[in-house]
Amino acid sequence: MRVIALFLFLIVIPTISIAQDLGNLEETSVGNFFGISARQMAMGGTGIANSIDGAAIFYNPAALARIPRIEFQIGLTHQKFNNESSQLAGRYDPPAEFRSTLNSSSIDATKTRFNTLNLTVPIPTYRGSLVVGVGINRITSFDRVSFLHLIDRRISDNALIDDQVNEHETGRIFLYSGAVGIDLTPNLSIGGALNVFAGYDKLAYTYNWIDNTQHPDSSSGGFTNQFDDDYFGVGVKGGLLYRPNNRITFGLTIESPIYWEIQQGYIDGDYIDVVEYDLIHPFKLGTGLSYSHKQLTLTADAEYVDWSQLEYTDNNDMEQYNDSLSNLYRDVLNLRGGIEYQFPKTGVALRAGIFSKPLPYHSKFIIDDEMGYSFGFGWLLDKVLLIEAAYVNGGLKRTYTSVNAEFTVADNKMAVAEDRYKRFYLTLSYRY
Predict the structure, then answer these.
(1) Helix (H, G, I), strand (E, B) or coil at 322
(2) Is the peptide bond before 344 cis (omega within 30 degrees of 0)?
């Protein structure tokens, strides 16, 4: 949820960040779901209709009613992140004063993090099911790096502009939940969760340049800035699960707007500036369908969010940008699909899935939306210990405004950045 240093940064520092194709209004938590639980992630991230573990606290609290025994769940994740950025030769239209040099750069980062801690407890009832759950889940990761190297030369005298930008970002948002699922009838369950979000985002931004265009003098320099954001948010989520027969399960979820309190700090040497504002995330609507036949399960999810309804509040200066948010962001439909096969009498299940997560930005900033695939397995030992693992491979490609755009010519075309990630999920569940 980074809004780059607001007023000071808007006035003093030019828009040169790799991520700044949305100007200074890119909220980095928007659409940034990292994933919870190896079983669901191995099946493309589906969970609205097929969750049968503590992760139902997040995916669909109504599915908690399907858990027959006390369950303790813990999980870790490992991510390998790669950013590739490129400047295209010929990105200036004639008769431009500058010509670009074909250039590209790549940078990697690897992180291992705690991801999941859930406890679910069935409450004895005369009939039906009543299950309560509490959980701590890392739903958003800000772990990211990027490096951009741009070289432009003036046609008249070959004078050089050489820019290098490096960003190192780290942080997370944890979701603290209390949830309950209950059977209204043998085939119909409902549930709800109270969600509290808390986390931080730290971005270190380094910019170095060489500029020989002011001939005969040349100049070079650089600076490093840091942005520290703290987040706190509250919301609720409700769910429904309907089983018309033993093979089909239908799920429905609705998540309320999330009300965020954000404190953003900007550090430049000895200078520190702090801005506080509120941000409202819009409603999220989800639906899921699961079909099971013997050992085979097929499942699919769809989630709709209209990110153009983002809204700043409690800060008059920020509220003036609400119209801009509605123009820069768009509504999206996230689609996920998965398959699972359980081998009889072995306790082993194999899983695979695919997913499509359209980026929440206006289409002019997008080359390829986020898409990917996944696979994994589960192994039940002695009917009490479940070991699950998942591998997720995904990526996206988008445009950004080049570093030296406003120092050269207006017809400087956008460059390209591609993010690729490989994520490994390990979840252990103990049932007793």
Answers:
(1) helix
(2) no
The rounded mean pLDDT for the chain is: 88
How long, in residues, is the chain?
A: 432
The pLDDT of residue 207 is above 80? yes
Residue with tokens 């979701």: 175
Q: Give the Å distances, CA to CA, from 224 to 109, 227, 267.
A: 20, 10, 9
- Is-contact 295 326, C-beta < 8 A? no
Give tens-digit pLDDT for 160-186.
888 888 999 999 999 999 999 999 999
pLDDT at residue 15, rounded to an integer: 33
Give mean pLDDT, residues 9-30.
52
For residue 242, give Cα distances in angstroms to 39, 246, 289, 346. 21, 11, 10, 29
Give the DSSP letter string of 74-89. Answer: EEEEEEEEEEEEEE-T
Cα separation, 84 vs 101, in Å, equals 16
The domain 6-431 having CATH identifier 2.40.160.60: the answer here is: yes
Answer for the pair 305, 332: CB distance below 8 angstroms, yes or no: yes
Task: Say if CB 356 and CB 343 are below 8 A apart.
Answer: no
Domain coordinates of the chain in residue numbers? 6-431
Cα gap 229→1, rounded to integer Å: 8
Least confident of 269-278, 390-399, 415-424: 269-278
pTM above 0.85, yes or no: yes
Cα–Cα distance, 191 to 184 (Å, whole number): 10
